[in-house]
Amino acid sequence: MPECQVRLLSKEDVDALLTEEDVISTVEAVFRGCAAGRVTQTHPEMLFADEGRENMFMPMPALLQERGVAGLKWVNMFGRQQPGYPAMFGHLIVLNSPENGGPYAIVEGTAITNRRTAGGHAVAAAKVLARPDARVMAVVGCGSQGRQGLNAFLPRYPLEEVRLYDRFPAAAEALAAGASARCPGVRFTVCEAPRAAVAGADIVLTATTSKETLVEGGWLAPGSFTAALFHFNDLDWRYARACDKWVLGLREADYGSILHNKDVLAKGADLKPGEEYGDLSDVLTGRLPGRTRADERILYTHMGMGALDVALADVVFRRAVETDRGQLFRFA
Ligand SMILES: NC(=O)c1ccc[n+]([C@@H]2O[C@H](COP(=O)([O-])OP(=O)(O)OC[C@H]3O[C@@H](n4cnc5c(N)ncnc54)[C@H](O)[C@@H]3O)[C@@H](O)[C@H]2O)c1
């Protein structure tokens, strides 16, 4: 009987082994793989843990033929969490070989979730949908994703001003203080209301956990690129129709997570499949052009998919083998 050996990789391993460039290039490759039919994934069912349906688990499996990896991201998201615990408390990613079926790694998933989202697929989308000369960025929601996104966008655009808004001004101030120490040439402004942050901004990142609409489409300027990481929870859903191009991440994933989202439907949203301009895989494979005019208002909404997490966990695993990081666990 062959030995089954699993490498255990922590957040520290993920942070040490995964570069920003790895994240972007891997995310882009996953979207292209999806377009080529080389990625199999089922789109997540939510397993609710409470009667109010606020606390849930979500299995996110994917098989990536080109990378030769199958895996599962096992996520929890507790809207009504116990005091002192974060809403997302310890995501895991398990990797298996599609050749012999056996598991070979368990990778801490929260760091990968953070890296592949605002600093990952949102950046990949911005590369083809935002104006390269963007000068003003707005971050609405200054938690983990706001921080990750700001850090990833700052070095990529000639930003002169960053406006930050959070319901807790201290969160926006802390984010501004950290970033301004690294980027003294950029002006950081903490705003008292979301409108002041987004009006006239070239790049807008909405990354709150609010189910109340905070940003109206009419406030978003011609030429802007908006990455709405919590889709139409905190951004008015009507902007999907009012903007010039509404781009999903991947149709099969986002129809379920965005169009059928019960909180968005409860606001009266009646968006239908086909109303989108296209998805990021269309643009990255050249099936559809990305931005074609400087004054287009472009909206990007994507709620993630297991294939992104599995691919990035596999990058971390390969680097860990090369550098002998992590702990080995034998099943027998
Ligand atoms: N699209 C994706 O692939 C993807 C992946 C992971 C997370 N997300 C989503 O991104 C969002 C942010 O995640 P996070 O990990 O950064 O969460 P977080 O809890 O670290 O940060 C959320 C921030 O939003 C702020 N906020 C909440 N309600 C607000 C309100 N009414 N007004 C202003 N600010 C408010 C909070 O104060 C906090 O600073 C979540 O909604 C999460 O579901 C999306």
UniProtKB/TrEMBL annotation:
<dbReference type="InterPro" id="IPR003462">
    <property type="entry name" value="ODC_Mu_crystall"/>
</dbReference>
<dbReference type="InterPro" id="IPR036291">
    <property type="entry name" value="NAD(P)-bd_dom_sf"/>
</dbReference>
<dbReference type="InterPro" id="IPR023401">
    <property type="entry name" value="ODC_N"/>
</dbReference>
<dbReference type="Pfam" id="PF02423">
    <property type="entry name" value="OCD_Mu_crystall"/>
</dbReference>
<dbReference type="GO" id="GO:0005737">
    <property type="term" value="C:cytoplasm"/>
</dbReference>
<protein>
    <submittedName>
        <fullName>Ornithine cyclodeaminase family protein</fullName>
    </submittedName>
</protein>
